[in-house]
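Thread title: Can someone regenerate the structure for this chain?

I was given the following input by a collaborator and told the matching structure tokens would be attached. They weren't. Posting the sequence so someone can regenerate them.
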Amino acid sequence: MIKIRDVRKSYTMGDNVLEVLKGVSLTIEDGDFVAIMGPSGSGKSTLMNILGLLDVPSSGSYELHGTETAYMSEDELAVFRRDEIGFIFQQFNLLPRMSALENVCLPLLYSKKENGREQARTLLEKVSLSSRAGHKPNELSGGQQQRVAIARSMVNGPQIIFADEPTGNLDSKSEKEILQLLKDLNAQGITVIMVTHEEEIGAQARRLIRLRDGVIQSDERRDEFKEGRGSAETSPKVRENKASSWDFISYFEQGLRTLLANKARTFLSMLGVLMGVAAVVAMLAVGKGAQKSIESQLSSLGSNLLVVRPGAQKVGGVSQEATVGNRLRFEDAAQLKAKASHIKNISAQTNGRGQITALGLNWNTQVQAVSPSWAELHTSVPVSGRFFTEEENQKRARVVVIGETVRREIFGDKNPIGENVKINKVIFQVIGLLPAKGASGFRDQDDVAIVPVLTGMYRLFGKTYVDMLEVEVDAAENISATEEEVTAILSSSHKVPLSQQSDAFQIRNMAELQSALQESSQTMSLLLSSIAAISLLVGGIGIMNIMLVSVTERTKEIGLRKAIGACRRDILTQFLSESVVISLTGGLAGIALGWMITWGLSLALGWGTSISWGAVALAFIFSAAIGVVFGVYPAYKASRLNPIEALRFE
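Best answer:
Regenerated them for you:
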């Protein structure tokens, strides 16, 4: 039963107050067929909107099945509209991108009733539209669209049908068909409340209420009505509106279809996210590749490594080049290994340039004369052949281990092991091929020839000293102590005066260099990622702008969804899912574009790149978060729209 008492409705327009309803009171029994008539501006549509829980009165009481609606929240009213009320609108209000069947099924998205789709097909069959179920509204006549609207109003099995000028836009034949459908619904025990301004339409109802200037002018019973012929349900059951995973899938599906209907705008809105994610993936890949390259280069330097060089001596307060007294000797390596507590490996080394010739070809390269322990110290065990031995070093054997660049330039695809080459006109035999290390800055680490240190000193460079000593410490925590030991041992061995011991030898801690390089790499990666994140932020702002435009464009659709039972959370989730669809689609496309950019950089510039799943996951999650964060405000704005104001929006 519907019972209203002294219901008033007024609107404030500037300084003026417009009273539309001026104390309307009436009672409508369950199962009745009521027509509300009146001229334009009489307040009949406003009264119907209040009765249909789309609008609220400014004052007065409205009881529905004995429950005062003034105490119901907006979501409770929405759930009640969904389960107990069906609306037939004058303008049909069918969603243009959906078929007839999908429009009928739309309320089921919010009611979550089982077997609802079969019920929708049955209703379309009852209104003689089963053959047109797959057609869009623009492919249907006015009468057919109104019948779709009637089927939609019935899909949730309501107890009350509100029809606003249901025949206002129809021809005479369609008018008769719609009126007959309404009579059939009333015959099934459904309460029908119809608003019209046509006498012949109002005459079809059992009860005719005339409204003028916001007050009831007359209330005429045209057909006998027995109380209680309607629904047995005496009080509204406000059902819970719980969300399930299937609901979210449905929202995402609808969101995707909505976006596909505006492909160009959707593409432009996701372009910012696409470019941002692509930049994140590409920059992280380049940064990761650079980090791996640095790690590879650092591994070639050895771990816990100290490099000892002769320092400058001061004569008369002026720094001079290293003299014979503090030049490093080959014997210093053995002495340090024997006396220092924490030295794991040590290699004496002297360097120079050398012209390598073989097979009629020549190549100028870096020649390093090192101790046999150099290979283990630098993790440079030959990939082919072998490294020289201490015995060969002592015999000053003319053997050489070459890098990949020297092999390529001199021997091409030929195996160099066992071949003879001349280094500065001295014949050497190639006994090993070093593993490829790649370029480091302007230096190619593979453009090198390694010979025994004594061989290099006495056969190639004519030196009686070495340029440096490379010392590998057994543990990182012992590096500082070893530095002090090395300085003390060398100072004692070289008889360096106490006043000059601090400058006699330079000891460089390669662990500190490694740490600095790694920090630089991480800082660069962070900087590049920050720039890419700004692109994502700009893309998110673009999504928010597009979604705000979408809310404005679809205000009437939002009003329809609320009228058929959508709660605030339903609308919020609907629009939020659309923004997430945009950002996720843009994110996936951005990941693909980022991979192509990375591949292109690697191919065109020879840069080391490495795409990690972590970077891909980060970009994907970031894009989803962008959709959520920047979609919240437009979705919230849509969810707060008043249903009747939204339906009236033009």
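DSSP finds 22 helices and 24 strands in the chain.
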